[in-house]
Amino acid sequence: MTDYAVGDIQGCLDPLLQLLDRVNFDVSNDRLIATGDLVNRGPQSLQTLRFCHSLGDAFKTVLGNHDLHLLAVAHGVKKATPKDTLDEILTAADRVTLLEWLQQQPLLLEVNDFCIVHAGIPPNWSLDTARSMALEVEQILRSEQAGHYFEGMYGNQPQGWDDSLVGQARWRVITNYLTRMRYCTAAGRLDLQAKSAPEALATELEQDLAPWFSYAERKTRDDKIIFGHWAALEGRDCGANLFPLDTGYVWGGAMRLMNLTSGEFTQQPA
User: Fold this and answer.
1) DSSP for the chain, written as a single string
2) pLDDT value, residue 207
3) Which domain holds residue 141?
4) CATH number (domain holding residue 105)
């Protein structure tokens, strides 16, 4: 059995199928693990959800910010934006099955000796902390409080973690860390506006801000982390034990697949 991890699909099913064909993916023997953002922006969001759901136990994913946005829209607490490509899902005959399945997915996965998360883990959190915080939100998403969660999900405040946080503010910070984070301080204060690669913002960032993974004192520096979300990194070498898989297919880049046994990357260009 071979486990493969793939970066953000974002409704681009064709390149994913091409990648799986190139590595001779065997649904009866192999597994595909996604870094989240299965849907949105690309033209095949419904088909992507159906395909991933059809793989059964051969597929695992973490939730990304676009997946959570779809669920919030489906819950009626947010309107779709003109850039969203979610209408086909929301009007599909099998939408209930697909959306209920999506809402059951985790925010953090551990496969073999890898941790998979959509955006990252803040430098002030250990893997044990991230695991515990992810589980806290996952349990809310799987409960009758899910609607209340989505009502408070959007927003950039609070900017960082505080043990005294409760309710929606607490869940929002956890969600922002795991699904939206790029830049933060060593203490985990977020800047959710900056999205470009570090070199493009070198003169614009506040002095104490840097990519979440760049801090020498990061508590997960010895943990292998696979993440997506940050297409502007273009899959660059981010340091030891870091595996960025979002190479921005939906923006004209490539889609990246990683063999978790060999460490080999396979890319499908746009």
Assistant:
1) --EEEE---TT-HHHHHHHHHHTT--TTT-EEEE-S--SSSSS-HHHHHHHHHHTGGGEEE---HHHHHHHHHHTTSSPPPTT---HHHHT-TTHHHHHHHHHT--SEEEETTEEEESS---TT--HHHHHHHHHHHHHHHTSTTHHHHHHTT----S-S--TT--HHHHHHHHHHHHHT-SEE-TT--EE-S--S-GGGGTTTS-TT-EEGGG-TT-TTTTSEEEE-S-GGGTT---STTEEE---BGGGTSEEEEEETTT--EEEEE-
2) 74
3) 3-269
4) 3.60.21.10
Structure tokens at 237: 């070498």
pLDDT along the chain (270 residues), means of 10: 97 98 98 98 98 98 98 97 96 98 98 97 98 98 98 98 98 98 97 89 75 97 98 97 98 98 97
pTM of the model: 0.97
Give me the residue label for tokens 């803040």. 122
Total domains, the chain? 1
